[in-house]
Amino acid sequence: MVSRPTKKSINVDIDAAKRDSQDGVVEKIAARVRERASELRFNARSLGEAVGVPSSSAHNYWNGSRGWPSEKLGDLADVLGTNVDALVTGRGFSQRHLVDANDADWVEIPEYALLEIDERGKASSIATTNLRRDWLSSSLGEASGLWLTRLPAPFDALTLGTGAVLICKDHQAGERLFDGTHYLWWINGGVVMAPFARREGAPGDRFVLARDVGNLEDQYLPIARVVGQLARPI
Predict the structure, then answer these.
(1) Alpha-carbon distance 208 to 1, whole Å?
(2) CB within 8 Å of 11: residues ≥ 6 apart
(3) With contact defined as beta carbons under 8 Å apart, do 134 and 105 qualify?
(4) What is the pLDDT of residues 123-176, one digit of tens each?
(5) From 223's CA, which of 25, 51, 91, 196 has a CA 20 to 30 Å away?
(6) How far apart are CA 122 and CA 111, in angstroms?
(7) Which residue has the higher pLDDT, 117 or 17?
(8) Residue where one domain finishes, among candidates 68, 89, 110
(9) Considering the domain boundaries, does residue 142 fall inside one?
(10) Has residue 150 been placed in a domain?
(11) Residues 197, 165: one domain?
């Protein structure tokens, strides 16, 4: 004889199903985040720093043991070059594949001399390079408003050598600065590259802190966000 389920057992089963469903959503979001973050060379710690969450929490979000806070999803999507809907539902998330070369759309990217950039902007372009739009979107998360420049000297923090080609995007006045992201800064008559940080890190870390950003003497004026190198994202 088959026993009939009690109301209590039904409620327990429903609650368990809800938890399983929620856990499944959290795991799927975590998987999408790991996929996109890995393409951009983020790990759990560096992604947490970029979004502004503690390292311990970032590892839990990374492996799916906890869900990303809803108030951080917008920042997370911005850092990963996608949108909240794609992260949460997966719609459009897997459509970043490369099309056939014969059907590819190409973007003409101008190149500027780094030493000719100042607080007023860039001089005339010195060259142009054609890059695939789908490659830019897949690798960097964006394909418009980009430009190139070459490092006049090595940048040891990222193991970049002299002549390394950077992909940059102008920083607009009032635009948000992303924690942990590298920028080109104008300061005291020259351009330097350094990551931005909202608060002080470990001793010896070379960041531009929020308190040091501005257009006064001895302050750092953001010129452009460094999106990546031709060979890899930064």
Answers:
(1) 73
(2) none
(3) yes
(4) 999 999 998 887 787 677 677 899 999 999 999 888 889 999 999 999 988 888
(5) 51
(6) 10
(7) 117
(8) 89
(9) yes
(10) yes
(11) yes
